Here is the input.
Amino acid sequence: MGAANKKQELRLKRKARIRKKIAGTPERPRLSIFRSARHIYAQLIDDTKGVTFVTASSNEPDVKNNTELSGKNKSEVAVFVGKLIAGRAKDKGISSVVFDRGGFVYHGRVKAVSDGAREGGLNF
Here is the structure.
């Protein structure tokens, strides 16, 4: 087993531990974060029905074609993604969420998304 597989295996164990404790509801959906080497993804999920309300990522055209973000680092783009998902959540009438870091350390881009979402008006 390579080091990368071991690292991912440990992250998935952390993710499972976290998911045992938290769940999204229609009133307070789960803000789930996934971080890849290049992009960051966020979605609001109702776990009772298994429905995704809102998504935002650094891989979508709204973010990729934004001239303000050209030349920015990944953490600054993550803050924008957080603000984007907060704005989309407000449009759907969602103001309070449960934060799910997805097994990732609450640092760097994961923290940047949460900071952006809080700046955008989400409560968690």
The radius of gyration is 14 Å. Residues 3-21 form the longest helix (19 residues). The chain has one domain: 3-119.
